[in-house]
Amino acid sequence: MNTTLSPITLTPNKTQKSILSRLLATEDIVVEHHKNAPTAYFDVKNRRLVLPQWDDMSNYLYDMLVGHEVGHALFTPATTIREDGSERDLPELLKEIAGDGGNEQMVMGLLNVVEDARIERMMQAKFPGLRRDFAAAYEDLHGNRDFF
């Protein structure tokens, strides 16, 4: 008997995904669904989650995007406290790391890769049921959508 479950491919329900997002985030974040959004993102300062509405978007892909972005809500700080006790927001931190004449966009790209890996690991540890969604969604993003 085959016990492997195939991913659910029903059309995602925006209301249910919004409720799921707020439940996982454990706060009343603002959740928006946009047809023209190129990707999902979370604004850590304003507590706003934007989810794209792509063609043929499966539930596991939607749930992975929710899980990833809620990871930013739960684990990505809006500011950083320095050793001297001073507080820095992201633009200040990027300038500090890049230094004079440095490439702030490159620094942001590198920080984003590390932060994404960190929060995804933490989300899958906190919510083990997301592991299958992440695996299936990344397979879809790599193989079918040429996302990366």
What does this structure look like?
The protein is built from 5 helices and 5 strands. The chain has helices at 14-25, 59-75, 90-98, 104-126, 130-143, and strands at residues 30-34, 41-43, 48-52, 79-81, 87-89. The strands form 2 sheets. A 3-stranded mixed sheet has the order 1-3-2, covered by helices on one side. The radius of gyration is 17 Å and the shape is globular. The model has no long low-confidence stretch (mean pLDDT 87).
Low-confidence stretches: none
Largest sheet: 3 strands, mixed
Task: Give the oligomeric state.
Answer: single chain
Distance between the termini: 36 Å
SSE string, helices as H and strands as E: HEEEHEEHHH
How many distinct helices? Answer: 5
**Approximately what portion of the residues adopt beta-strand conformation?**
5-15%
**Mean of all residue-level pLDDT scores:** 87
Cα Rg: 17 Å
Question: How many DSSP E strands?
Answer: 5
Residues in helix, %: 40-55%
Strand order of the largest sheet: 1-3-2
Brief characterization of the structure:
The protein is an alpha+beta fold.
Spell out the blueprint of helices and strands:
Elements: H1 14-25, E1 30-34, E2 41-43, E3 48-52, H2 59-75, E4 79-81, E5 87-89, H3 90-98, H4 104-126, H5 130-143
Parallel strand pairs: 1-3
Antiparallel strand pairs: 2-3, 4-5
